[in-house]
Amino acid sequence: MIDQVRRLCLGLPEAFEVEAWDHPTFRVGAGKGKIFCIAAADGATISLKADPLEREALLAQGEPFYVPPYVGSKGWVGIRVEDRRTDWKEIAELIATSYCLTAPKRLAETVMKPPSL
């Protein structure tokens, strides 16, 4: 799972990976960057910044969406991606949204479609 998450995140402009808190974090921007995705070490779950209205709708669906610890109160959504029924197209769209909410405007404006596997 982590390889798919990594490919989607690093497929975005100037995105990079930093190991933090024993988890892969995906970032964009100068210096240490701003985090747009946090993955479990094995990639079974990810946490992403979400559009407020979309976040409400995702959480209302229940599984595989949940309020993640630490960042959940800051508008992030957690997603369990270890299930074989995972919709990777939807995950790519959510990763792109998180990236665009976090990235500098000049980079966010270059994202016309989600990254692909």
Write a concise keyword list for the protein shown above.
alpha+beta; 117 residues; six-stranded antiparallel β-sheet
Written account of the structure:
With 117 residues, the protein is of the alpha+beta class. Helices cover 32% and strands 25% of the residues. It is built from four helices and six strands, in the order αββββαββαα. It has helices spanning 2-10, 52-61, 88-102, 105-108; strands spanning 16-20, 23-28, 34-39, 45-49, 65-66, 76-80. The protein has a six-stranded antiparallel sheet with strand order 1-2-3-4-6-5, with helices on one face. A hairpin with a 2-residue loop joins strand 1 and strand 2 (23-28). The longest helix is centred in the last third of the chain and has 15 residues, at 88-102. The model has no long low-confidence stretch (mean pLDDT 93).
Briefly summarize what is shown.
The chain has 117 residues and is of the alpha+beta class.
Coarse morphology: globular
**Could you tell me the strand content as a percent range?**
15-25%
Low-confidence stretches at least 5 residues in length (pLDDT < 50)? none
| Assembly category | single chain
- Average pLDDT rating: 93
Order of H and E elements? HEEEEHEEHH
| SS content category | alpha+beta
Strand order of the largest sheet: 1-2-3-4-6-5
Q: What Rg do the Cα atoms give? A: 13 Å
Helix content: 25-40%
Q: Termini separation (Å)?
A: 12 Å
Quickly count the helices: 4
Count of extended strands: 6
The biggest sheet amounts to: 6 strands, antiparallel
